[in-house]
Amino acid sequence: MRREFIVCDPNKCNGCRICELACSAIKESTHDPMLSRIRNVRMTAIVMMSVSCRLCEKPACVTACPRLALSQEAETHLIKIEKSLCDGCGWCIEACKFGAIALNRDTPRTVEICDLCYDLPQPRCVEFCPKDALTLSSPEQVGQLTRRDTLIDLITELAGVEQL
Amino acid sequence: MSTVSGRVLLVDMTTRATEVQELDPEYFRLYLGGVGLATRLLYEHMPPGADPLGPENVLAFATSPLAASLVPTGSKFAVATKSPLTGFLGDSISSSYWAAALKQAGYEALVIRGRAEKPTYVLIDDDHISFVDAEHLWGKGSYATEEQILADLGDPEVRVASIGPAGEKLVRFACITNDKERQLGRTGPGAVMGSKNLKAIAVRGTKPIRAADLDRLSQLALDMNHKAQGMATAKYRIIGTPTNVLVLNRLGILPTHNFQAGTFAAAEQVSGEYLHEHHWQKTVACAGCPIGCEQVVHVKNGQYEGAGVSLDYEPLFALGPCCGVDDLAAIIKAAALCDTLGMDSISAGVTVAWAMECYERGLLTQEDTDGLELNFGNHQAMVALIERIGRRQGLGDVLAEGCRRAAAQIGGDAERFAMQVKGLEMPGYDPRALKTYALGLAVGTRGGCHNRSAAYEPDIKGEVDRFAADRERGVLAKRQEDFAATLDSAMFCKFLRGCFQDFYAEGAEFYEATTGLALTAEEFKQAGERVSNLKKAFNIREGWTRADDWLPARFLEEPLPEGPSGGAVLTSDELETMIDGYYEARGWTSEGLMTAEKLATLGLEDLLEERRKAV
Amino acid sequence: MVGVRIFRTLLAGSWPKTASTFEFHHKLRYGGFLARMPCPIAIKADHMRLTVELFGYMRALAKAKQVEVDVVAEATLHDVLDMLVGQYPELRSTLSSPDLPEWFVFYLQDEEGHYRASPHESRLQENAHILQENAHILLVPTQAGG
């Protein structure tokens, strides 16, 4: 099965953070960016992007967990958390290179990772993003989209010259 | 379940005492939140006649009950205080994460009184409140202040509202900045914070925000997010409010050279279209907003290289055509300076324009201006003066008082062309050829404000003849004010208003799905009228009389000289008639005061014993 | 590609690429570089040519500050709107929208040279508001705020 995850286009992302509210709302019935599985980062006034679990082929979080509470489903590549084993130590949070793991501060503490809203028709963040910056894509699709965008830019630039 | 906690945090800067009170739940039905709630709290906690820059003045911050949730554009908050610029109600609105943080900390509102002995900032960490020494922050611009606080606390999720040097130096139109880029802009709340030695309010909130009906709210929000990408918001998303420059210039109502004229020869060079082509980088959004209207622009080369800001029409007009400046790079630089120093760019720009007119008329000499050649169009002088105002240096110290007080200092003719209403400097539309707007401007509780009524809307949309005036304009001005008051209290962004078919019904739906409070569309609407009257009651208590509802002499004595609105002027008769019509539409006396009956119908009887002058 | 962009920007009336790929796709689909078709033939005797001035994002869509419409003599605003929609496909989605009266108003000059808003009903009525030769019309976006 193709490995898909949430991809954010930084050109379209405008830092509204509605994705964080939508995620925490559907997952935790509260509005709390800290409990969202997808996190938006604003680096400067114009540089911003949302990041969530990349469903890595060799997930560092799974390797890191000292209590073997994390595992990866072979079919879907989703990371599964065995809540009874997780004690909220946060080692996986440090291991993840994307900062894609959230610590749920409620008692008892456990971690939360994006599960692509597998039980819904589409991921909530993708549904709510007002600028269509988020898509559920595989690495192959991401490459294809980027190639297509570049081609459109090129054609329009050339067409623009012809117009003059 | 509700997103409303109903708690207000009271903070005394003098004694460092803090207290949490439960708000009467009726307050949310009566005032909704935001501006309405903030004004109510101000009314209750500030003693009548307090000195705006003294310890008795109160800063009442109130969030929207819809903040921190999926409600589109709901993440807003308001501050109400007695304005050091006008002496009347100073209410201001801002957006973004600070509002969400305060709610997540468990508070609807925050009331601050007193005065700290030395520079301090307040840290609100859920239930734990601390007063932190801010000596090392004093003197820093708003951006640097926030960066430092985040570094000190080691937590990038803390949200900060702060003042810059302008607020510290009590520049009368100093603003409060939150989340680095947003402002509680007008009427000088930054100076009130400065007078309390309060450098910043940092908030960390971790409590849940649970909507009463999350499924319903999610559906409403999703629908509204889609609508927010349509034509109703296209102007804001693409090119933005700076679109107004060429529109108003074409109609002959673009304030030029301190409102001497209505057309600007170099309008194309400072237009929104030009700005978009030469300076635009990206359009971004504030928290929870599906529209995204912030036009981030920067200067790529030249003497102002590196300056960057999110620019809207009002700062553009005030620092541009109003000062005769035709250089967008200079305007961007000046707007960025206003942001860093922490002051209202409209008031700053219009005050500089006044100073320019004084200079050209010989009322100010080069000695007064510290060598600056303060002619209209001299953008270096404009930029230099903005810096000096923010730091109260040289002539900046006089101008930091606002153009009304500065004009009173100079005396004579200078007061005639100080373009302000009740002390608050004029926004970017010429009322001589927008007569409903002229009325809204004259009677507004904030002073020279376009935002709390947007009374130019009926004029520009052609609902009425913008060149004519009549008594019935009073009905329109009331309608506009009450609509804005509901929006500002609920709170929704004014840029979202076009996405509602029936604002009161749909707004009430959002309100109920979030807070659990079931208000009818009629109650939702009435809250707006109630808040408008509450604001007025505050002003009356602080000494307002009918004489305060008037416009600068220029609009009544000097017709627009030329251009597409050439010859237009407002007569005293016209203004009097419209004001009469407005008081009548409001159900007030001919002197603009509120009868006991009127207060009773609005549920504001408890204001009765405070009134000294009501009939 | 950068050189091409600079070259384009140097010439008057050209517009840089839009904010996002999303808007780009919109332009490509609704006209983009196949945009407006100027009217090269002479005006017929019973026709007149009017100009409509555009502002803000409408200018970006049309790639022009103002556009010309060729209408019958004694045309009304209703006819102008029809012709605009017909001749300028990139403006079509905006101008054909039922929300148009809410967000755009046509302004015409009176005898004193003042621009006045024409009530939006006049655009719907076929016999209202007859225009003169060489009339210069403004298409003004009316969303409030600044």
Can you walk through the features of this model?
The complex is a heterotrimer of chains A (164), B (615) and C (146). Chain A is an alpha+beta fold. Chain A contains five helices and eight strands, in the order βαββαββαββαβα. Chain A has a single domain, classed as Alpha-Beta Plaits (2-Layer Sandwich). Chain A has helices spanning 18-28, 60-64, 91-95, 124-128, 139-163; strands at residues 5-8, 39-42, 48-51, 70-72, 79-81, 101-104, 110-113, 134-137. In chain A, the strands form four sheets. Chain A has a two-stranded antiparallel sheet. In chain A, β6 and β7 (110-113) form a beta hairpin. Chain A is globular, with a radius of gyration of 18 Å. The relative contact order of chain A is 0.20. The mean pLDDT of chain A is 91. Helices cover 39% and strands 13% of the residues of chain B. Chain B folds into three domains: 7-204, Aldehyde ferredoxin oxidoreductase, N-terminal domain (Aldehyde Ferredoxin Oxidoreductase,  A, domain 1), CATH 3.60.9; 228-421, Orthogonal Bundle (Aldehyde Ferredoxin Oxidoreductase Protein, subunit A, domain 2), CATH 1.10.569.10; 431-610, Aldehyde Ferredoxin Oxidoreductase Protein, subunit A, domain 3 (Orthogonal Bundle). Chain B has 615 residues and is of the alpha+beta class. Chain B contains 24 helices and 17 strands. In chain B, a hairpin with a 3-residue loop joins β10 (176-178) and β11 (182-184). The mean pLDDT of chain B is 95. Chain B is globular and about 60 Å long. The N and C termini of chain C lie far apart (35 Å). Chain C has helices at 2-10, 21-29, 57-62, 77-87, 89-95, 100-103, 121-124; strands at residues 47-53, 66-72, 104-109, 115-117, 136-141. In chain C, α4 packs across α5 (89-95). In chain C, 34% of the residues lie in helices and 20% in strands. Chain C has a single domain, classed as Beta-grasp domain (Ubiquitin-like (UB roll)). Chain C has a five-stranded mixed β-sheet with strand order 2-1-5-3-4. The interface between B and C is large, with 49 and 38 residues.
List keywords for this structure.
heterotrimer, A: 164 residues, alpha+beta, Alpha-Beta Plaits, two-stranded antiparallel sheet, B: 615 residues, Aldehyde Ferredoxin Oxidoreductase,  A, domain 1, Aldehyde Ferredoxin Oxidoreductase Protein, subunit A, domain 2, 39% helix, 13% strand
